[in-house]
Design goal:
Layout: H1 2-15, E1 17-20, E2 23-26, E3 32-37, E4 45-47, E5 53-56, E6 68-72, E7 75-78, E8 99-104, E9 109-114, E10 129-134, E11 139-145, E12 157-163, E13 171-176, E14 184-189, E15 195-198, E16 214-215, E17 218-219, E18 221-222, E19 230-231, E20 236-241, E21 247-252, E22 257-262, H2 263-267, H3 273-279, E23 281-285, E24 292-294, E25 300-304, E26 309-314, E27 317-323, E28 330-335, E29 340-345, E30 365-371
Length: 380
């Protein structure tokens, strides 16, 4: 009888957990599948107030017929149209070359962040930009091409957040998540297109020199076929704004730390980078994350790609709100007006470059969500 009772308890325990390559991992949170992707690997996602969902596919090597899409009836459709999604390097400001991020702003515009760096190559001159599409008309209404002194040969613009209250038309804050050069933050005046870099090469915008990710029990390193393994280093990546717009959160992808800085100081060009660096706060360990997000209650969210989790910072403490083997590299996070946190899961760590030329990704990629009962930060 005792043996049967113990076996029943063990079976019940196993049903409550899953195994990730031999490591027990409890399922946490009610995770819902929103959409699946059987073609190219998506990175970014954003959700408009009326529920429209947009995603993007950077041109990293997969066949990418369109780099920005809207999810319509569960299917990805080129957005705003197929024509603009046809990369035209001869006219770099007029077409979408390789989009890393999409974000809906409080004015109901979809901002498309174009790295102009397919395959992480040197950005095509005049191609790194932000393109705004009016969601009421589905027409491009503004294009901001980044100045040449902001886009370094190693720059890879990664993610962006908006505060439309500052200046004539608002400001944008971006991360440079360079793989081979200095990271940094970029501030853009949306009215004039004027932009400038901040904290370039600072330790808080750089890959942690002691960091090596461990996923499913294996170190994540560049492992080219027939080549020598090397460290995978990515600079400042995730970014989020507090509900009052006064604090910018950011983190390098190759790090487990979260940092913050006052946006007023960030915008004030009379403050040197050396003095600005002294104002940056290290908010401690959060887990290694790709994207960051915040909600209108002041909570901050980050993925934990080493442990298949989504975490939330509330009242100074991190807690896991979602955990599952299906969260294989949580990438971008987006707070919807419907009370859900949306996030892409794209198996980035299983790409061939990390496995001696063997592509270990298993389709479909997924767009998931979890209820958080909060809305997006909307600074307008």
């Amino acid at each position: 009888m005792f043996r049967r009772t113990m076996m029943a308890a063990l079976t019940a325990a196993l049903l409550q957990s899953t195994t990730i390559l031999g490591h027990a991992a409890e399922e946490i949170g009610k995770i819902e599948t929103v959409a699946t992707f059987d073609d190219a690997m998506p990175t970014g996602v954003t959700v408009a107030p009326n529920g429209r969902i947009f995603v993007n596919y950077p041109r990293w090597g997969d066949d990418v017929p369109f780099t920005v899409a809207e999810i319509v009836n569960g299917k990805a459709v080129a957005y705003p149209d197929a024509a603009i999604n046809k990369a035209d390097p001869a006219h770099p400001a007029d077409s979408l070359l390789s989009v890393q991020s999409v974000v809906v702003d409080p004015a109901n515009r979809l901002w498309i962040l174009d790295t102009a760096a397919p395959g992480f190559q040197t950005p095509i001159a005049g191609g790194a930009k932000m393109v705004a599409v009016d969601l009421a008309t589905n027409k491009v209404v503004k294009t901001v091409v980044f100045p040449a002194d902001v886009i370094l040969p190693t720059t890879y613009v990664n993610d962006v957040r908006f505060d439309l209250r500052e200046g004539m038309e608002g400001v944008a804050y971006l991360t440079d998540s360079s793989l081979a050069g200095p990271g940094g933050l970029i501030v853009v005046d949306l009215a004039t297109g004027e932009a400038f870099r901040r904290l370039t090469g600072d330790r808080t915008t750089s890959a942690d020199p002691d960091f090596v990710a461990v996923i499913d029990g294996k170190k994540m390193m560049n492992r080219p076929k027939g080549g020598t393994p090397s460290r995978f280093t990515v600079a400042s990546d995730g970014i989020a704004l507090s509900p009052d717009g006064e604090t910018l959160y950011y983190s390098p992808l190759s790090s487990r730390h979260l940092y913050s800085v006052a946006t007023a100081a960030l915008r004030d060009r009379s403050i040197s980078d050396a003095d600005l660096a002294k104002q940056v706060k290290d908010l401690g360990l959060k887990g290694a994350s790709d994207g960051l997000e915040a909600d209108d209650q002041g909570r901050v969210y980050g993925g934990d790609y080493e442990n298949h989790r989504i975490r939330m910072l509330e009242d100074g403490r991190w807690k896991t709100i979602a955990q599952s083997p299906q969260i294989q590299w949580p990438d971008t996070l987006s707070t919807g007006s419907d009370g859900y946190l949306y996030f892409t899961v794209n198996q980035l760590d299983r790409q061939a470059g990390f496995h001696e030329g063997n592509d270990l990704r298993k389709k479909p990629y997924k767009l998931l969500r979890i209820r958080i009962d909060a809305g997006p930060v909307a600074l307008k």
